[in-house]
Design goal:
Small_mtfrase_dom, S-adenosyl-L-methionine, about 230 residues, alpha/beta, 10 strands, DNA_methylase_N6_adenine_CS, methyltransferase
């Protein structure tokens, strides 16, 4: 069985196209969810982000949306076998999802490949490419399910992060918090963690994080962020 064991839960990933990644772990650990009551995970895949957020704030009511049937199997299995089986997984496109109650936090590790060659695996293409969920559609979904003080938190490569931010600004969203991520000290920044809100901000919280030292060990900053999750950290 292909899987990933964390300290408080396990992630089976036999069926989903997109496996557990550093991107997902970074996002689940970095998102600001301390004051939230309701969270929506868009494109949950294995359920990783929903499970990480539930571990961090067990009073959260969490809904997770996933379009791919095979990924839903993994997510529901992982949630059922976790300490938090009350997380609800909805099998549908976020464009078709509706909720009477608004969410305080929306979190997503979104598809971002716009122009690269599509994989022959249709599920992997849907998970990796924006063909099924464009940035504008994701932002529209957030606005639809949020209230005036909600936040949208995502992780993207730098070029796509710039494009996403431009779309967000056009749609009335403001970047409040950003973290520039580099994998090693000698590599350039490759990912950007970002939190958006409808509230105009007077100042932005900017930080930086390096995942690994030159000797391939985890940096103290990454350990501080993620040590509650990794089994051997």
């Amino acid at each position: 069985m292909a899987g990933f064991a964390f300290k408080q839960f396990k992630v089976q990933q036999n069926n989903t196209a997109m496996k557990v990644s550093t991107d997902g772990i970074l996002l689940g650990a970095w998102a600001n969810i301390g004051d939230a009551s309701r969270l929506l995970d868009i494109g949950t895949g294995t359920g990783l982000l929903a499970l990480m957020c539930k571990q961090r704030n067990q009073s959260l009511a969490i809904d997770a949306v996933e379009i791919d049937e095979q990924a839903v199997k993994d997510a529901r299995t992982n949630i059922k076998n976790s300490p938090w089986p009350d997380i609800t997984v909805h099998q549908c496109a976020i464009q078709d999802f509706s909720s009477e109650t608004k969410f305080d936090v929306v979190i997503s590790n979104p598809p971002y490949f716009n122009h690269s060659l599509h994989s022959p695996d249709s599920a992997r293409t849907k998970a990796r490419h924006t063909v099924g969920l464009s940035f504008s559609e994701l932002l529209s979904a957030f606005i639809r399910v949020s209230h005036s003080h909600s936040t949208l938190t995502v992780i993207l490569p730098c070029i796509e992060a710039d494009i996403f931010t431009e779309h967000a600004n056009v749609m009335g969203l403001h970047l409040h918090r950003v973290c520039h991520v580099q994998m090693t000290p000698t590599k350039p920044v490759s990912r950007r963690l970002m939190a958006f809100s409808l509230i105009p901000n007077k100042s932005m919280c900017v930080s930086a994080l390096c995942v690994r030292n030159s000797d391939n060990t985890y940096t103290p900053e990454y350990i501080t962020l993620c040590q509650n999750f990794y089994l051997k950290m």
